[in-house]
Amino acid sequence: MGRIHIDLFCSLDLVAQAPGGGEADQADDGFSYAGWQWPLMDDVVDERIDAGMSGMDALLLGRRTYEFFAGFWPSPEDEVARLFNGAHKYVASRGTPQLTWEESTRIGADLATEVRELRDRHEKVYVSGSLDLVQTLLAEGLYDQLTLFVHPLVLGAGKKVFQGGALPTGLRLVEPAITSPKGAVVLRYEPTGRPPETGVMPS
Question: pLDDT (tens digit, 9 = 90+) per residue, 24-58?
Fold first, then answer.
């Protein structure tokens, strides 16, 4: 069985809407801070993003992210382009998007079942973009690694990481937290497969 990896950029108050700006990042609903991540990017964040994508053989995208990526990534000739172009692309959509990018397949009739099948079929499925898609996976507990890039700002409004609910589960930090020069904290977790533990503090 393979693994599903989610990388997600968020603010200190866990807003994850439109970090890169533009329609592909869901800059809608009157959200005023699309592109908030860009001023906080640095080499450490870039390196950790690259590390998260390393080894993927499948890419799971929402429709709008797919359309944005398909219009850009087939042309560059760098390592990220090589990874994206060499991976099979799965597009979560209830519609009929134009699949112009090589090795692309639409899924979405029964998203949870189909994602479980992807996990059986691929060694590493990397989830990119589409907060709605990520929220669905979190709600279903359909991930094997969750990396949060927590940035040093409070946005006060916007769509949040767990806004759609999440399956209660314990998580374990799989490597020490990494702090970038501009203050982003990278937290890489794996679910324990067990519900959260509870207890009473001694008096």
Answer: 555 567 888 999 999 999 999 999 999 999 999 99
Collapsing DSSP states into helix, strand and coil, what is residue 135? helix
Burial group, residue 155, by CB count within 10 angstroms (0-12, 13-18, 19+): buried
Report the chain's terminal Cα–Cα distance, integer Å.
45
The CATH number of whichever domain residue 154 belongs to comes to 3.40.430.10
The answer to the question of residue 197 being in a domain is no
Residue 33 domain flag: no
Report the b/e string of 104-131 with b at 16+ CB within 10 A. Answer: bebbbeebeebbeebbeebebbbbbbbb
Residue 202 in any domain: the answer is no
pLDDT in tens, 124-139: 999 976 888 999 999 9
d(CA 117, CA 188): 24
Q: Is residue 203 part of a domain?
A: no
Helix/strand/coil (H, E, C) string of 26-74?
A: CCCCCCCCCCCCHHHCCHHHHHHHHHHHCCCCEEEEEHHHHHHHHCCCC
pTM: 0.91
CA–CA distances in Å: residue 142 to residues 57, 147, 169 = 17, 14, 12
Query: How crowded is residue 141: how many other Cβ atoms within 10 Å of its Cβ?
Result: 13
Nearest to 74 by CA among 66, 82, 62: 82
Boundaries of domain holding 133: 3-28+38-191
